[in-house]
Amino acid sequence: MLRALYTSSTGMYAQQLNIDNIAHNIANVNTTGYKKSRIEFQDLLYEVLRRPAASNETNQPTGLWVGLGVKPSATQTVFAQGNLTPTDNPLDVAIQGQAFFRVQPPAGDDYVYTRDGAFKLDAEGNLVTTDGYYVVGVDAIDPEGYDITIAADGTVTYKMPGQDEPVEAGQIELAKFVNPAGLEKIGNNLYRPTASSGEAQDWDPEADSTVSLQAGYLEASNIQIVEEMVNLITAQRAYEINSKVIQSSDEMLATATNLRR
Description:
This protein is α+β, with helices and mostly antiparallel strands.
């Protein structure tokens, strides 16, 4: 019974963490560029009561052991493409493919990366994120500039009064990673490279046609709300049944304790 008490407690903790993750996914269903995550689990060590044995005298093809529960092993981020939502805003940009916008904090720290392409212009004409992070690769746009256009390869152009030819302001820099799931989430739709993700690799639009930009669109989160609701119900039922096992084990333990009365 004591094994069952401990084992079921690990199951309750695992399902609680699972529900926490599901709640986070559901809360970000409308977050631009959000990528859903899922919890992965592994079974714990086994207590071996009898090992399989084979000899001239005995032949026991199977042993006797009992598992000791479950543990969370990893949080996997799923970088599946989200749906593109039209916004009619020329500064909104969505990425099609496995790449990230390279942005720089105002303080000038190391680059960070995002899938959120809801860009804006600051007071100096710089293309920035909602939090004021500079979009790397694009120069400041002249205050008199208008009709800003972002091409599929990230080239930013705008027009000036009295000029027929558009002025090029630079090219939005994108980066790819060997293992995007290894990126560190730091909030505000931002990611930071780690040793697990590998170093950022510059995207070359001429050599890599698997990635393109869509101006006037934003990438919605890849959350499927129906799927998350099903996962929530499953996790809730698993949590409840683990609590029932604890109650049953406690009752059995009480029965064994009262045998001599």
